[in-house]
Specification:
Length: about 220
């Protein structure tokens, strides 16, 4: 599903480059739940940005769903990302001037889907995530937990095979965090491959495998 071969990332600084990732070699199977952990500055978010096809400025090989991301043209990378990856951010990143239902429709608008089918998908997702009553509200009218629930729903409405999450419960209290993690568990059981970055040992327990990063290097991995 995902294969990284000698991935390296640096930024130009004097007198020598600052390395963010060094010789990262990883493979994630379809249907796995992966946690990436490490101290601040370890390269976790940098790695997630590469996995999410948000950052193409790296060395090495990145294979996603059988396609060589490192060799694709920008337009083709964007198409692959939209078809294959959903992204959940710590800060939610909902569009403030759109209602919940309109936020859910955004990823569908990038695809060649008829308006009636899009409306049906939005309705089904609102029902699945138990947010039908929130469909006409704006993000500012929701609690933090509700906003993150909408963000997860938006990330998976187009049914991408891979879901990436960057500290998805970082701004939530413990009960809201558990709700989101149980939702991830359910999505994973339904077949979605999940890769999350977290500092939470409790959240890490949901994963099949934990990848440890330090100073840009993979320093350990295991159950």
């Amino acid at each position: 599903m995902i294969r990284l071969v000698d991935i390296e990332k640096s930024i130009p600084t004097k007198p020598s480059p600052t390395w963010l990732l060094r010789r990262v070699n990883l493979e994630f199977e379809r249907g796995e739940f992966i946690t990436i952990m490490g101290p601040s500055g370890a390269g976790k978010s940098t790695l997630l940005a590469i996995l999410g096809v948000l950052d193409a400025d790296f060395k090495g090989e990145y294979w996603l769903a059988g396609q060589a991301v490192h060799a694709l043209k920008p337009k083709d990378r964007l198409s692959l990302a939209r078809a294959s990856v959903g992204f959940v951010f710590q800060q939610y990143h909902l569009l403030d001037d759109l209602t919940v239902a309109e936020n859910l429709d955004v990823p569908l608008s990038y695809r060649n889907i008829k308006s009636a089918e899009r409306a049906a998908l939005v309705a089904d997702t609102l029902d699945k995530f138990s947010i039908v009553g929130k469909k006409d509200l704006y993000p500012r009218q929701l609690s933090g937990g509700q906003q993150q629930l909408v963000a997860v729903a938006r990330a998976v409405i187009a049914r991408p095979p891979v879901l990436l999450a960057d500290e998805p419960t970082g701004n939530l209290h413990s009960a809201q965090g558990r709700e989101i993690m149980e939702l991830f568990k359910q999505l994973n059981q339904e077949g979605t491959t999940i890769v999350q970055v977290t500092h939470s040992e409790e959240n890490a327990k949901y994963a099949h495998r934990v990848i440890q990063l330090k100073d840009g290097w993979v320093v350990g991995q295991g159950p």
